[in-house]
Write a structure and sequence with these properties.
The protein is an alpha/beta fold. Helices cover about 35% and strands about 25% of the residues.
């Protein structure tokens, strides 16, 4: 029998297996990254289980963004090991990260003259879907992200809110197992933002990097806090709730101090 890893979805991602095995969707082992001589990530070890909704907050703020860029394969780490959905390195093949991992950064990177349909079709081609499947998925994304009426209009007509919706729809086109979101949808109305970021799928793992933790209330069930590149907090939201602390930078700082005082 071949070993159960997250690269065997038919076994690992079944509900029974997830409940029993508690597999990891994101693994960082001793990951380090320096920038301009300063450590953004310093021997970071972090494990995120399948289905978790994790918020990553950091001081300096760039550390959380760098972590997500490394996880997405967009920036290199100076040392350490990264595994996402069972894959140990960036793999653009259809069976690798191209379909199984999605990333949305603070800058959409979308040309304003492109239409949403062109962006989504390109994402489908990169993932190596055939044209009928691409069309089916575009229809689904257009409905979910409410861009159907603008599919064939240049994105510049809808401005940054439309560009951000399209970027998220493009990343979700493959229904990835892991979604990496760096300051997502900041140009979108807060209530609509919450709706759009409430990711479907109980076994989809979501990692959000945010400089405004309070804005992620209701979207996450775990919080990690990096200070000077080191992990000083990784806790479920239930623990903050239990001690009466809000999801905010002040609440996170207070939780870290409380944990230190209790010798955790």
């Amino acid at each position: 029998m071949r070993p159960l890893t997250s690269s065997t979805p038919e076994a690992l991602w079944a509900s029974q297996s997830v409940r029993t095995l508690h597999p990891a969707a994101v693994v960082c082992e001793n990951v380090s990254r320096r920038q301009r001589g300063q450590p953004l990530l310093d021997d970071l070890t972090l494990v995120v289980g399948v289905g978790a909704r994790l918020l990553v907050v950091s001081q300096p703020e760039e550390s959380a963004s760098m972590l997500l860029r490394i996880l997405a394969g967009l920036s290199r780490r100076h040392s350490g090991i990264v595994r996402l959905a069972g894959v140990a390195y960036p793999d653009s093949s259809a069976a690798g990260w191209a379909r199984r991992v999605g990333y949305v950064g603070p800058d959409t990177g979308i040309y304003p003259w492109m239409t949403p349909h062109e962006v989504l079709y390109l994402a489908g081609r990169i993932a190596e879907y055939d044209p009928p499947e691409i069309r089916r998925r575009i229809d689904g994304m257009a409905e979910r992200y409410r861009i159907g009426g603008q599919l064939d209009q240049p994105i510049r007509r809808g401005g940054e809110p439309l560009a951000q919706r399209v970027a998220l729809a493009s990343a979700m086109l493959t229904e990835p197992e892991v979604m990496l979101l760096d300051e997502p949808l900041r140009a979108v109305d807060p209530e609509e933002r919450t709706r759009l970021l409430t990711m479907p799928g109980t076994r989809r793992t979501v990692v959000i990097a945010s400089r405004n933790p309070a804005s992620e209330t209701g979207l996450v069930d775990q919080v990690s806090f990096l200070r000077d590149g080191r992990l000083v907090m990784h806790a479920p939201m239930e623990e903050l709730d239990r001690v009466g602390l809000a999801l905010s930078q002040r609440g996170i700082d207070a939780f870290v101090e409380l944990s230190a005082a209790q010798g955790r």
